[in-house]
Amino acid sequence: MVDISAIAARLDAAAQRAEAIPQITGETGELPLADAYAIQRAAIDHRLARGATLVGMKMGFTSEAKMAQMGLKDQIWGRLTSDMVVVNGGAIDRARFIHPRVEPEVAVRLKAPLAGEVTREEALAAVDAVAAALEIIDSRYENFRFALGDVVADNASSSAFVVGPWLAADTDVSDVAMEMRVDGEIAETGTSAAILGDPIRSLVAAARLAGVAGLTLQPGWTVMLGGATAAAAIGEARTVSLDAGHLGRVGFTIEGGAA
Ligand code: 0L1
Ligand code: MG
């Protein structure tokens, strides 16, 4: 039997202290997805008990390349909480993170509830605004290494996120060139089409996966639709910026040193 609450407490403490822990699967063997999502939920409950609120959902493994690398046929997802929000142009404290990486993404803000099997048109009808965004991922596991169950339990590595200026819901997000810079140097370039061929497909998948979990995506929530490129390590960098063409710019600075 997997001790859901004990593992959740361990992951929550690792995130709070910015201290890596060994993989759960090193101890339990394979971790079934249902148990992994139960651990994720229980770990997030610790944050909610401290006063954070749920503000959205993140999609992970949204590129064919990443899915193939993990031997997956579906995406994974995690929960976004209010303590993960970084304002555009704001600063993060490096000491909050273990070994952070950053990915260029597309985000949507919802104006209507969304859950279960929906069409592309139904998903789009629930969108209030779209934006370019950056996700900071920071696996709570040693050496940023994990099996599928580990990463799902660890909230799909999500750690913080920054959303650029919100744009009209009908702004085309399907194939937007993205150039991400770390300390002014190009770190990754790509296109939003790498997100399941079209980021709106990721929103359809988010609704489906939320439905499977008995959740409804809520009006006002942000959904981070997935990485357009590989993630770049932040290391001791001081600035990260994303130029996403007609989706605009988003960025943040990094203060302090590693924990
Ligand atoms: O957002 C992502 O696609 C990352 C999912 C978690 C896997 C990782 O940490 O690379
Ligand atoms: Mg991501």
Please write out the topology.
Elements: H1 4-17, H2 25-28, H3 33-49, E1 54-60, H4 64-70, E2 76-81, E3 85-86, E4 91-93, E5 101-110, H5 120-125, E6 127-137, H6 148-153, E7 158-163, E8 167-168, E9 177-182, E10 185-191, H7 199-212, E11 222-227, E12 232-233, E13 239-243, E14 249-255
Helix pairs in contact: 1-3
Key terms:
single chain, 259 residues, alpha+beta, Fumarylacetoacetate hydrolase, domain 2, 7 helices, globular, binds hexanedioic acid, binds magnesium ion
How does this structure look, described?
The protein has helices at residues 4-17, 25-28, 33-49, 64-70, 120-125, 148-153, 199-212; strands at residues 54-60, 76-81, 85-86, 91-93, 101-110, 127-137, 158-163, 167-168, 177-182, 185-191, 222-227, 232-233, 239-243, 249-255. By secondary structure, the chain is of the alpha+beta class. It has one domain (4-255): Fumarylacetoacetase-like, C-terminal domain (Fumarylacetoacetate hydrolase, domain 2, Alpha-Beta Complex), CATH 3.90.850.10. The strands form 2 sheets. Strands 1, 2, 3, 5, 6, 7, 8, 11 and 12 form a 9-stranded mixed beta sheet that branches. A hairpin with a 5-residue loop joins β13 and β14. α1 crosses α3 (33-49). The radius of gyration is 17 Å and the shape is globular. The model has no long low-confidence stretch (mean pLDDT 96).
